[in-house]
Amino acid sequence: MKTYKVFVDNEWKNGRTGEFIPSYNPCNQEIWAQIPLLSKEEISETVEVAHDAFRTWKETNGLERARLLNRLADLIEENVEHLARIESSDNGKVLSETRNQVLFTARNYRYFAGYADKLMGNLIPLDNQELLDYTTLEPIGVVAIITAWNSPLPLLANKLAPALATGNTVVIKPSEYASASTLEFAHLIEEAGFPRGVVNVVTGNGATGDALVRHRLVGKVSFTGGTNTARVISKAVSDNLIPISLELGGKSPNIIFEDADLEKAVVGAIAGIFGAAGQTCIAGSRLLVQRSVLEVVKDELVAITNSIKLGDPFEESTQMGPVANKNQFDKILSMINEAKQEGAELLCGGSALENDNLKGYFIKPTIFYTEDPKITIACEEIFGPVLTILPFDHVDHAIELANDSIYGLAAGIWTRDLQKAHKTAKQLEVGNVWVNTYRTSQVGTPFGGMKQSGFGRERSWHTLHEYTQTKNVMINLSDDKRNPFMMQI
Ligand code: NDP
Fold first, then answer.
1. What is the C-alpha to C-alpha distance for residues 288 and 298, in angstroms, rounded to an integer?
2. What's residue 420's pLDDT?
3. What HEC string does 198-213 produce?
4. pTM (2 decimals)?
5. Which ranges in the chain are annotated with CATH 3.40.605.10?
6. Is 348 a catalytic residue?
7. Among 171, 224, 229, which is best to mutate for testing ligand 1, by the most ligand atoms less than 8 A from CB?
């Protein structure tokens, strides 16, 4: 079993409490590592370290920040296999997925490296020609980064890359269920040569995160996790009146119109819900299918779903691993049982996998059909391999069902009709719409939610404004004497 230390001020430290949180491998339920549970005092000291480092880091020129971020991306690419294996050990995702995700994080750091020396303000033309006016983009200070367990490294990159590129320092608190990959990643921060205190990783539980986000020297919180935790954090930071970005959950509609290429649409539906065992915020967990093609879509989906190979995430032939932890396992099974009691029709799956060779948290990929969009399984996020199919009759009906949700993270549209695709995309109350694809990620596109899926955007140039604040500078060029009792315009 591996015992981790935390990374603070470019040093590897033991936690002073002497307490640890075990990391379970969800594939076999064995403890494979332990991570330190830090005290509130240690969190406070770490924020102070990051705050001191900010004074010099914010003055570093963009070229140097770009060089360090590109070096970091090189190191990630050299360590893809190692990082992917750690990530899969912690959250049970299949290795092909975590490898791809680690490569994607390297791309993310390179993308923002490209912006580090191009953070331009504006020269603003004014009515009064005797005034010269310009803006600058300035870093905020210490950013507290809180991530979820489902994809620790990609979620971190979405926040860390723009935060560093724009000159902020950070304190990262990964989830207690999957902290190891972030601690391993910190070795690459060290090797890349980032100055002391610029990037710090602390570990612990929800209370540790609470101590971090409340600290008076934290200038911004960037959070990925559940909607309920987001409410708690929003209240916690309100005393300090600091900006916060929230990347939260969803109940994303994936809409199949009758004129779609049904073969592709069905594969897209599978990718949307059974990729990563449904443990993605963008899971297309509500499949809306036009009634005229309902039976053919159902049959095809069930046939493919029954053939999905569950197994050890490290075996290349495995298509779906276990769910990430015992809490998730119990919660998903309980929601499956609730769906049965509420009268949803079970089309396949619907239970834990019983296999003497697989002792982990395996749940069979599950599909329900219901005509009632109000039952729990059709409304609440499950964060697991459970799909709910709902029928619709026409375009407006599909849009009404899609928008009838507290969430607004993502949606899919499957159609060959370009006009229908554009009109539907416009009316969907979500931050991300895919047409004839699903769960396709690119670093250049803005990602984030509407409604209770959060606010703020990640990836893409839009994110630069999440980690900077605008300063306006106005210079008087005239020799005129002013009347001090009258506002000048
Ligand atoms: P949680 O909200 O339970 O936890 C998220 C993070 O918050 C963890 O690091 C957790 O620490 C920490 N935390 C818990 N309580 C507090 C607190 N009071 N103050 C500060 N930090 C706290 O979410 P999960 O980890 O269970 O992740 C699943 C959720 O994340 C789903 O709803 C999913 O949709 C969403 N998600 C959203 C994404 C997006 O980009 N929109 C991407 C991925 C996931 P600890 O675990 O140690 O308790």
1. 11
2. 98
3. CEEECCCCHHHHHHHH
4. 0.97
5. 2-248+453-473
6. no
7. 229
